[in-house]
Specification:
Layout lengths: L8 E4 L3 E3 L2 E2 L2 E3 L2 E3 L9 E3 L8 E5 L6 E3 L3 E9 L9 H6 L3 E7 L3 E18 L4 E9 L1 E4 L20 E2 L5 E9 L3 E3 L9 E3 L4 E9 L14 E7 L2 E9 L12 E8 L7
Antiparallel strand pairs: 1-2, 1-10, 3-9, 4-9, 5-8, 6-7, 9-12, 10-11, 11-12, 11-13, 11-15, 14-19, 15-18, 16-17, 18-21, 19-20, 20-21
Length: 268
């Protein structure tokens, strides 16, 4: 019996890396217009008596147009010693890039004019460090390569022990860079002319086990900074904390403290 790998594949951006999930696709749908008599499927016998129909078909599909084209979707992957901060710089600066993805089912695609719409880093005590990305692009091309390359390199997955934000003993950490990307369309093409980066917003949450030593450790009255270190990757954040919420429950209490990037939130 031969086992086929199905749709398992690998992404290629500055080197091949494996994704937990990859759902970036080209999207376009037909759009239909309403008739002036409404959304009826048949023509009435007269305007005053709309309850009786002649049975003549008046299909809405006769008045239609193609919609604009957009490439968008998401991917997520665990951090390894070879994929540290993959696509982070593109998210921070809003720069364009091309992304290839090769499936083991005999399909290979290239996505061009891409920008990172959002980039989320997640880490939970005792678990893996992972990234969720939302990507928006201009075009998709089917490549000639038909076989997905194997990734023979041994990679070490980055876990919580290699995570340090310098914020004390955390239970979890999550941070999102949202670029609020907007597709810009012009005459002569249904593809976007460009993907514009909107106002960048940095938000996140840190979770502490509530105790007497850290219950009031956060000063919410002024901007603050911290440097996130994940293995050999590092990034400084300029933020301001939201007012801390207090909870009470039977058992361990984890206090979430939200923050928002201010000033030059992600300095180089």
């Amino acid at each position: 019996m031969t086992l086929t790998p199905g749709f398992i594949g690998s992404a290629n951006f500055g080197g091949t890396f494996r994704c937990t999930d990859f759902s970036v696709n080209l999207k376009q749908t037909p759009l239909f217009y309403d008739h002036i008599i409404g959304l009826r499927d048949s023509t009435p016998t007269n305007i005053t008596d709309v309850k009786s129909d002649t049975g003549q078909r008046n299909e809405q599909k006769k008045i239609w147009r193609p919609s604009v084209i957009i490439v968008d979707g998401g991917l997520n992957f665990p951090w390894t010693d070879q994929t540290l901060g993959k696509l982070w710089q593109e998210a921070r600066t809003g720069s364009s890039f091309s992304l290839d993805f090769t499936y083991n089912c005999g399909l290979s695609r290239q996505f061009t004019g891409c920008k990172v719409n959002s980039y989320t880093i997640k880490a939970t005590a005792g678990e893996l460090v992972t990234t969720d990305l939302s990507i928006m692009g201009i075009n998709m091309t089917t490549l000639t390569q038909q076989t997905a390359p194997l990734n023979p390199n041994t990679q070490k997955i980055v876990t919580w022990d290699a995570f340090d934000a310098g914020l004390g003993d955390l239970a979890y950490f999550e941070c999102t860079v949202n670029n609020n990307c907007i597709p810009i369309y012009t005459n002569g093409s249904l593809n976007p002319y460009e993907i514009r980066v909107g106002m960048q917003l940095v938000t996140g949450t840190v979770g502490y086990y509530q105790s007497n030593t850290n219950i009031n450790m956060v000063n919410t009255s002024a901007p603050s900074t911290f440097t996130l270190n994940i293995d050999t990757w590092s990034q400084k954040f300029n933020i301001i904390y939201h007012p801390q919420q207090q909870n009470a429950a039977l058992g361990a209490i984890i206090t979430p403290i939200q923050f928002t990037g201010v000033d030059d939130a992600l300095p180089s």
